[in-house]
Input
Amino acid sequence: MSTSPLDAWITDDDEIASLLHQDWDRQTTTVQLIASENFASPSVLAATGSILTNKYSEGYPGRRYYGGNQVVDEVEDLARRRLTALFGADHANVQPHCGANANVAVYEALLNAGDTILAMRLDQGGHLTHGSPASITSKFWKFVSYGVTPRSDDPEKPGEIIDFDNVRALAHEHRPKLIVAGATAYAREIDPVPFREIADEVGALLMFDSAHVAGLIAGGSHPDPVPYADVVTFTTHKTLRGPRGGAIICREEFAKKIDSAVFPGQQGGPLEHVIAAKAVAFKEASQPSFSIYTQQVVANCKAFGRALASEGFRLVSGGTDNHMLLLDLRDFDAELTGKVAQEVLDRAGITTNRNTIPDDPRSAFITSGLRVGTAAETTAGMKEKEFETIASFMARALRHRDDDLALAAVRHEVAALCADFNPYSNFTK
Ligand SMILES: *Cc1c(COP(=O)(O)O)cnc(C)c1O
Output
């Protein structure tokens, strides 16, 4: 096995050490195309693995329920200052353990149980916390869902984009207290302006769930929702490239309510080691190099999309404006499901996830779609050319999906490509 950054750390637990080494090998010899994943920097990893994990600090800087928080207060204050500066926001809460917690805390802060929320349909790109029957959100609040426009094969007028006529009609009919913009499987820009207009027409608050695109916003590669939304939630581990976690920024008038909803409303002691790592990531994201990174992420994704289209995959919405692509597999091969494609690509060393596409005739477990993204491998240094190569690997693997030798050959070529793009090469040298 190759040397990993873990070598110096785990010395007394062979079983976990061995499993971490196995995943180090997986992460560095196969291609990571999950749109919600990234490679956090060595500094982010180090802060996440730091001694701050030892500290209890329920409360907020200056108002803790435990002693000994002088240093932790500075860590959390620094994280909050860096975050408000990064997005030009009034107030930041860096304690949510994940993006789902951030969303639920906002609902809890701004709404009463039973209030109506207008959010994106799950099977057309929305997230579980946007009202899935499987999510606790649907038990406490009433959800109404908007969708995307019908499929169009006219390149001048792409379909499968957010249907603002539908958003407006539903908003006027149901008078939601909160409108949620933002998606988990949507390759197009989400314009905050029409969402704000519609929210104002019906007196609703606007939350922008930027879990996926927060890094692109920070880097200037996606429209900025902060001037338009009352609250913006996000994860810190997707395009923002920090530790696994969530965060909330909001207008000053909601600061108190948001803070109380996170703690004590929903969570206990904050993960201050992760908050330190979030602070590191916010600093990284404020550098000019991060902006160049996000531009490359989008350029790579556009090139990846063109290459996949020329292999016969249909791109949902006709293309991409961000870090992800949603592929309709039926044009490539009517028999091929998302589930089978994901499994075959796994065997070929290409990590993806199956995903429903708008009006998918197959179930959410089987699906007709596949979601891929460029955020992680762009961090590892890949450019347009490498993503074009990956598109050809994907097509080859899926065309020869019953041929073990062909899949092994692709896996071998994938490993050779990954050897030149180790995200931690600076770390191991
Ligand atoms: C990923 C995601 C979340 C949830 O983030 P977790 O950290 O997995 O809880 C919420 N909303 C959207 C739109 C997402 O894509």
The chain has 16 helices and 15 strands.
